[in-house]
Write a structure and sequence with these properties.
The chain has 15 helices and 15 strands. By secondary structure, the chain is α+β, with helices and mostly antiparallel strands. A hairpin with a 5-residue loop joins strand 6 and strand 7. Helix 1 crosses helix 4 and helix 10 runs parallel beside helix 11. It binds adenosine-5'-diphosphate and magnesium ion. Adenosine-5'-diphosphate binds next to helix 11 and helix 13.
C-alpha cells in the first residue's frame, strides 16, 4: 500500500493524472491513451505482449510499461528472458523520492524516444496502411532464415488464398502449389531466387478450399544497406480470368483454322467434281444399255449430293468480315441440312416452320455458329430417347422498345436443365458433357448476339413427361449495321442484282 501511495504522489508531482485499473479486462484503446503504466511484474509482462501484438498491427507508440518488483519475494527478470523488455523497473522497497526520481528518468528516456521516432513511426504506419489497402496480394519472406519462411502477408493475400496470416507465417510459399510441383513456370521462380534477381511467373495455385487459380507472382529481392539479401517480396495477382480467356481464344482460333481447312478442301473438291458431273452427263447421252443408264442416273444423284455438301461447307465456313443481308432461311437451312442425318440417327424428328421475313443484316457465319450450337445442343439433349426438334423463324417486334427483327426458336423435348445448370450455361467452360463438350458454345454465342444487339432467352423443364428446353433468339433487322448502312442496303436492293452483289461483297 505504501508503494501505491509513493507512485501516486510521484505521479501528481509529475503533473500526471493517475488512473487505477484492475488487472483483467484490458481495453487496449483505453490503455493506449496512458503515458505510462505501472504494474506488478506479471501484469506488466502481459501488457508488454499485448502492446507488441498491437504494434505489429501498426497502432502507434505504446505507453511506457514499468514493472514493480520485489527482490525479496520474486526473482528479478533479466533482460535475457523473453517478454520482459519493460521500459523501466521499480524495485521496492524504495522511498517516495527514489520512486519519483526513477519514474522521471524512465519517462524522460521514453519521451525522448517517442519524439525522435514519432516521424519514423508515422511513416511506418503509413507504409503498413498502404500494404494493408493494396488490392494485390503481398507476401514477404525472410531470406536470412533457411527455406524462406513467410513473415508477412497482407489482407489481399489472405482474401485471394483463403489462408490467414497466422496460418502462413513461418511456412514456405510453396504450399500454394498443392500437388503441382512441376509447373514449367517454377523454373522462373527458382532462377530468380538462385540469382537474387527479379522474376515474374504465372503459377497455378490452390486456395485453402482446394479451388485452383492462376497467380501472377512478381518476385523482388530486398537488400539491406550493406547489400546483403534480407527478404523477398512477392506481389500476387489473380489472373485466372485472363488465362481462361487466352485458352478460350486459342481454342476458337483452332476452330477457325479447322473451318478454313474444311473450306479449302471443299473448294478443291469442287472443280474435279464439276468435271465428273459433266462427264457423267455426257456418258448418259451416249448410246448405252438401260442398265448402264440406271447406274449413271444413280451416280448423278450421288454426285449432286456431294456437290450440295461441298457448297454448304463453303457457305458455312465463309468468313464474313462485313455485315451481309441474309434471309432467315438462308441462315437456317444449311444448318438443318447438316444436322439432318445426325438427328435421324438419334431418333429425333424435325419440325421446321419458317414464316417469310425481311432479310437481316448480320455477320452470316457468326449467326450460323449461334444457331448451329443451339441445334446441336438440342439434338444432344435428345440423343438418349429421341424426341422432337422444333425450329421456327418469324418477324417480330421486340416488346418494350419497338425494335423489329427476326425471332428464331429452337425447342427440344430432351432432358431439360436443372435450375443450377440453367444459372451456369452462359459461363465459359461450363459443360455437362464431360470431354464431349467445350462449354464455349453459348458463351461465344452471347458475345456474338450482344454485338448484333440481339437477345437470347431460355426456358427449360425437367418435369417427367414434359421435359425440354426452348431457346429464343431475337435479332433486330439493323442489329449490327448502322442505320445508314441499312438504308444503303435497302436502296441497293431495288437496283439490278449485279450492283447489289457488289455492295454486299464490300
Ligand atoms: P457445350 O455444348 O460444349 O457443353 P454450350 O455452351 O453449348 O457448351 O452449352 C453449355 C451447357 O448448357 C451444356 O453442357 C448443357 O448442360 C446445357 N445445355 C445447353 N443447351 C441445352 C439443351 N437444349 N438441353 C439441355 N441442356 C442444354
Ligand atoms: Mg454446345
Amino acid at each position: 500500500m505504501a508503494e501505491l501511495q509513493h507512485i501516486l504522489t510521484a505521479a501528481s508531482e509529475m503533473k500526471v493524472e493517475p488512473t487505477i485499473f484492475s488487472a483483467d479486462g484490458h481495453n487496449i484503446h483505453q490503455l493506449k491513451t496512458f503515458e505510462f503504466i505501472v504494474a506488478d511484474r506479471l501484469v506488466a509482462q502481459e501488457l508488454v505482449l499485448l502492446f507488441e501484438e498491437h504494434e505489429v498491427a501498426g497502432e502507434g507508440i505504446s505507453p511506457a510499461i514499468i514493472a514493480v518488483t520485489r527482490p525479496d519475494t520474486e526473482a528479478l527478470p533479466t533482460s535475457h528472458q523473453p517478454g520482459c523488455n519493460f521500459d523501466g523497473l521499480l524495485t521496492f522497497p524504495m522511498t517516495g523520492t527514489q520512486v519519483r526520481a526513477q519514474l522521471s528518468a524512465i519517462m524522460y528516456a521514453h519521451c525522448a524516444f517517442a519524439k525522435r521516432y514519432s516521424d519514423a513511426w508515422r511513416e511506418l504506419q503509413l507504409n503498413r496502411r498502404i500494404f494493408r489497402s493494396i488490392t494485390a496480394g503481398i507476401s514477404v519472406a525472410s531470406a536470412t532464415v533457411p527455406d524462406l519462411p513467410l513473415v508477412y502477408v497482407n489482407p489481399a493475400f489472405e482474401e485471394m488464398t483463403g489462408y490467414t496470416r497466422a496460418e502462413v507465417q513461418g511456412r514456405n510459399c510453396r504450399f500454394l502449389e498443392g500437388n503441382e510441383r512441376h509447373q514449367p513456370a517454377l523454373a522462373i521462380v527458382r532462377d530468380a531466387l538462385a540469382h537474387r534477381r527479379k522474376g515474374v511467373a504465372v503459377l497455378k495455385n490452390f486456395r485453402k478450399d482446394g479451388t485452383p487459380f492462376w497467380n501472377e507472382l512478381s518476385l523482388s529481392p530486398i537488400m539491406d544497406d550493406e547489400g546483403h539479401l534480407t527478404h523477398y517480396v512477392g506481389i500476387q495477382t489473380d489472373v485466372t480470368k485472363r488465362v481462361d480467356l487466352e485458352l478460350a481464344l486459342r481454342e476458337s482460333e483452332k476452330l477457325a483454322a479447322v473451318g478454313r481447312l474444311a473450306s479449302s478442301i471443299a473448294h478443291e473438291i469442287n472443280n474435279p467434281l464439276t468435271s465428273v458431273m459433266n462427264l457423267n452427263f455426257l456418258a448418259l447421252s451416249t448410246d448405252c444399255s438401260q442398265e448402264t443408264k440406271n447406274f449413271l442416273v444413280t451416280a448423278d444423284r450421288e454426285l449432286k449430293r456431294v456437290k450440295l455438301i461441298t457448297e454448304q461447307s463453303l457457305r458455312f465456313f465463309k468468313q464474313s468480315t462485313k455485315a451481309q443481308s441474309t434471309s432467315p432461311s438462308e441462315l437456317l437451312d444449311p444448318i438443318l441440312d447438316l444436322y439432318q442425318s445426325h438427328a435421324s440417327n438419334a431418333g429425333v424428328t424435325t419440325d421446321v416452320r419458317e414464316r417469310p421475313s425481311r432479310p437481316l443484316v448480320c455477320m452470316e457465319s457468326e449467326i450460323r455458329q449461334v444457331l448451329s450450337n443451339l441445334v446441336s445442343n438440342a439434338i444432344y439433349a435428345m440423343q438418349e430417347h429421341g424426341g422432337q426438334l422444333s425450329v421456327r423463324s418469324r418477324e417480330c417486334g421486340m416488346w418494350g422498345n419497338g425494335r423489329e427483327g427476326v425471332l428464331f426458336t429452337v425447342a427440344d423435348t430432351g432432358t431439360g436443365m436443372s435450375a443450377e445448370t440453367l444459372s451456369c450455361i452462359y459461363k465459359a467452360f461450363f459443360t455437362t458433357k464431360g470431354i464431349g463438350g467445350t462449354g464455349l458454345g453459348l458463351w461465344i454465342s452471347c458475345e456474338i448476339i450482344e454485338r448484333h444487339r440481339g437477345t437470347i432467352e431460355v426456358r427449360s423443364s425437367q418435369r417427367p413427361g414434359a421435359s425440354g428446353t426452348v431457346f429464343q433468339l431475337f435479332l433486330p433487322y439493323e442489329g449490327i449495321a448502322s442505320k445508314t448502312e441499312v438504308a444503303d442496303l435497302s436502296r441497293s436492293l431495288r437496283s439490278p442484282s449485279s450492283t447489289l452483289r457488289s455492295v454486299l461483297e464490300h
